[in-house]
Amino acid sequence: MQPDTTPAPAGKTLPANEAMLSVRGMKKVYKTDGGDIEAVRNLTFDLRAGELACLVGPSGSGKTTLLKCIAGLMAPTEGEVLLNGTKVVGPPKKMAVVFQEYGRSLFPWMRVRENVELPLKNQGVPKAERDRLVDDALEAVGLAHVPQSYPWQLSGGMQQRVAIARAVAYQPEVLLMDEPFAAVDAQTRADLEDLIRTVWKKLGVTVLFVTHDIDESVYLGQRVIILSSSPTVIQEDLDIDLPDERDQLNTRALPRFTELRHHVYEQIQLAKAGHRPAAATQA
Amino acid sequence: MKVLKGIGYALALPVILVLIWWASTLGETNFFVPTPGVLAEKFAETWFGERILSDVLPSIGRLIVGVVSAIIIGIVAGLLIGSFKWLRDLTEPVLEFFRAIPPPVLVPVLMLLMGITDGMKVVVIISGCVWPVLLNTIEGVRAIDGVLSDSAHTYGIGGWARVKYLVLPSAGPQIMAGVRQCLSIGLILMVISEMFASSSGLGFTIVQFQRSFAIPEMWSGIVVLGLIGVAMSFIFQFTERRILRWYHGLREVENAA
Question: Are residues A195 and A74 in the same domain?
Answer without folding.
Answer: yes
